[in-house]
């Protein structure tokens, strides 16, 4: 699950987990719903100058969709098609998380202090900025290795975020396990740090610095949406004109 802490105008969203499996932060319907609830709460309390930092407990930022959960649904139903249908449902539910982050009226920073794989990497990339620790963890689009294609909105986000065709090819057509320094060179990560603590501290400092600008949150969200029109189109995220309250 996750928690949301408010420190002044700064929000800290933490992916939590009591068991070893939970600390992989695999994206199942319950965790997706929890994240969306936290983002909705942050949005409802946002003011000009707010910012959000997302962190995760344990060795994983997120290990992608919860395939074990999908398999369990299939076993219970006695049908492989039921497992496939549940995976499709998670892919569809996760669209809401990406939509929420792209629409959030404040700067967002993901502090990646462990592995970020598949949908977990997309979760990180849905933030405006990403910090990462060099001491442990990789970024990894595992779909090719497990024999499945990527959802259309995954590819649209990757194309919008990574300007280099070579970087996109490395990520999705080689299924490379990318460490922090290489991820920085590819444009996935904004800064690499020696420890998890330093990566989180850097994300918080960035959030505080951005928050000091006091930007209009709705204008910020609108400009973000216009920066990534294709993924917003696929997600059905609408933009609106925001004008200054005073000229």
Query: Average pLDDT across residues?
Result: 94
Helix content: 40-55%
Radius of gyration: 18 Å
Would you report the number of β strands?
Answer: 10
CATH superfamily: 2-enoyl-CoA Hydratase, Chain A, domain 1
Q: How would you spell out the order of helices and strands?
A: EEHEEHHEEHEEHHHEHEHHH
**Whole-number count of domains:** 1
GO molecular function, one term: delta(3)-delta(2)-enoyl-CoA isomerase activity
Family: Belongs to the enoyl-CoA hydratase/isomerase family.
Catalytic activity: a (3Z)-enoyl-CoA = a 4-saturated (2E)-enoyl-CoA; a (3E)-enoyl-CoA = a 4-saturated (2E)-enoyl-CoA
Keywords: Lipid metabolism
Write the SSE topology:
Blueprint: E1 2-7, E2 10-15, H1 29-45, E3 51-56, E4 60-62, H2 67-77, H3 80-103, E5 108-112, E6 115-117, H4 119-125, E7 129-133, E8 139-140, H5 143-146, H6 152-161, H7 165-172, E9 177-178, H8 180-186, E10 191-193, H9 196-211, H10 217-227, H11 229-235
Parallel strand pairs: 2-3, 3-5, 4-6, 5-7, 6-8, 7-10
Antiparallel strand pairs: 1-2, 8-9
Catalytic activity: a (3Z)-enoyl-CoA = a 4-saturated (2E)-enoyl-CoA; a (3E)-enoyl-CoA = a 4-saturated (2E)-enoyl-CoA
GO molecular function: delta(3)-delta(2)-enoyl-CoA isomerase activity
Protein name: Delta(3)-Delta(2)-enoyl-CoA isomerase
